[in-house]
Amino acid sequence: MNIPCAILLEESVELGKNLYEKVFDLHTVRQLPSGAYQVLMGLHLIHEVTSPQAFAMLRERGLRVMCPERTFATVDHVIPTDRQERPLADVVAEEMVQHLEKNTADFGITYFAPERGDQGIVHIIGPEKGLTQPGMTICCGDSHTSTHGAFGALAFGIGTSQVFEVLATQTLALRKLKVRRIEVNGKLSPGVYAKDVILFIIARLGVKGGVGFAYEFAGEVFDAFSMEERMTVCNMAIEGGARCGYVNPDQTTYDYLRGREFAPGNSAWERAVAYWESMKSDPDAPYDDLVRFRGEEIEPMVTWGITPGQSVPVNGTIPPKSAFPEHEQPLIEEAYEFMGFEPGQPIAGTRIDVAFIGSCTNGRISDLEAVATLIRGRDFKVAPHVKALIVPGSQAVKAEMVRRGYDRLFTEAGFEVREPGCSMCLAMNPDKLQGNQVCASSSNRNFKGRQGSPTGRTLLMSPVMVAAAAIKGEVTDARELFQIG
Ligand code: SF4
Questions:
Q1: Which of 6, 80, 369, 441 could form a disulfide with 356 if both were Cys (CB 3.0 to 4.6 A apart)?
Q2: 111 pairs with which residues across the strands?
Q3: What pLDDT is attached to residue 231?
């Protein structure tokens, strides 16, 4: 239900502030002549793909990194997941890693290298290390930086020239966003996961619905979510067009952070929690828009098209063109043609060739646990025609997976368990679709060519749904296969 913005704003005059406004205002250095704001960045995460040119620009101008102690690096996009021994077989990838090593050494930046045992996808290691904290401003040269909003941070994906800007000044020019509060109340049904929640939200609000907005995710479903589930949702806020997405911090946030390497220590903890609490949206905070959904209306979702907004419940059918506004219809036709679907066709039963569980959306230990719990002790095997990859999001996730024995479980079921990296999410490494293969994927984008083949086709879904598709060899309702609920 949309509540008219005017009413919300009229009432806002005497009211409190939401988290977005508080954090934005606290970090604003000044308003620029352009009307944008110069905003201090508390944390800058970098990786091998979008940073080399930015460091070259620093060198050209004879500049140093303004806050190396607030800048952290890892390697994730190009790193292969089969063997990571150096030198890497791909010469370009090896060069990119070497640039990152040199740049971080020259400029005094901490680099979470594979050799240290703490490498991983940039949006997985930030939280894992306790670097991502409530009330912070965070940026990274990757679109899915919105992930960090799960902690009540304002986190922005930026381009290479902005990476340079932040390295040189620790600030970023930002326009102020409107804030839409998205409440999901009630309870999710068994077999419905955080991934389904965000795919559902994007399907309802559209891939451009969030343009100009920050999304505040709230309500009983988010209150009950773990931090990892909140990260999955915030990760894909950008796919709904929002510049960032966040969840207000609470005890779940503090429990996750306590004791992590870069989290405040015992002496600073109480002060930190008091600050974090003060950053929460006030109960009477105004919003530019408010949307409410019920958890009970959400089903396991599967994308059928070429944007993350083109999805249907697993027992649904490919929608007719007439279900979309006229301006979207050319894109819908393009999606039918590219994906090979006809309107009215059920999505369940779509044969798949590849299954991918991983990425910064769903490559965390809880994602692997959800799958492991369902296949343990049961004679499930990956279908013979399916190549199924499980790629942990970080070396820490992998270590935990091995400690729990999931690697053996997955391997015995016919999955290939790989080394950490972005893998088939973006396919800037050897993990690529071939020809027009169809991939059931737990990643975040189903754009044409996203998984490495210009004609490869991606169906986004939750890790449990990917596992079910891998086993059946086709899109299937995981609730039935695994007898969930
Ligand atoms: S997993 Fe995908 S979205 Fe995430 S950082 Fe890597 S390439 Fe980007």
A1: 441
A2: 73
A3: 98
Bridge partners (DSSP) of residue 390 are 357, 417
For residue 144, report the distance from its CA to the centre of ligand 1, in Å: 7
Rounded to the nearest whole angstrom, what is the distance from the C-alpha of residue 425 to the centroid of ligand 1? Answer: 6
Q: Would you say the C-alpha torsion 5, 179, 9, 219 has a positive or negative sign? A: positive
CA 12 to chain centre: 32
For residue 56, with 0-12 CB atoms within 10 Å meaning exposed, 13-18 middle and 19 or more buried, which class applies? Answer: middle
The secondary structure of 191-251 as a DSSP string is T--HHHHHHHHHHHH-TTTTTTEEEEEESHHHHHS-HHHHHHHHHTGGGGT-SEEEE---H
Per-residue pLDDT reduced to its tens digit, 112-135: 999 999 999 999 999 999 999 999
Whether 140 contacts 158, CB under 8 Å? yes
Among 334, 335, 295, CA closest to 311: 335
Calpha distance 41→311 (Å, rounded): 35
Nearest residue CA, atom 6 of ligand 1? 422
In the reported structure, the alpha carbon of residue 167 is separated from the centroid of ligand 1 by a whole-number distance in angstroms of 21
Q: String of b and e for 239-266 (b: at least 16 CB within 10 Å)?
A: bbbbbbbbbbbbebbbebbeeeebbbee
* pLDDT-derived band at 337, boundaries 50, 70, 90: very high
Question: Measured from the CA of 363, which atom of ligand 1 is nearest?
Answer: 1
Q: Report angle CA 287, 44, 399 to the nearest 5 degrees.
A: 105
The whole-number average pLDDT for the span 400-407 is 98
The contacts of residue 428 (CB under 8 Å, 6+ apart) are 49, 77, 78, 422
pLDDT digits (tens, 9 = 90+) for 16-43: 999 999 999 999 999 999 999 999 999 9
Mean pLDDT for the chain? Answer: 96
Going by their DSSP bridges, the two strands 137-140 and 178-185 should be labelled as unpaired
Give the rounded percent of residues in the chain with a pLDDT score beyond 70: 97
What letter does residue 394 receive in the DSSP assignment?
A: B
From CA 376, how far away is CA 385, in angstroms rounded? 22
Select from 78, 138, 144 the residue to mutate for testing ligand 1; criterion: most ligand atoms less than 8 Å from CB.
144
Kindly list the distances between the CA atom of residue 228 and the CA atoms of 64, 79, 136, in Å, as whole numbers in the listed order. 35, 23, 18
Q: Do residues 41 and 66 lie in contact, with contact meaning Cβ atoms separated by under 8 Å?
A: no
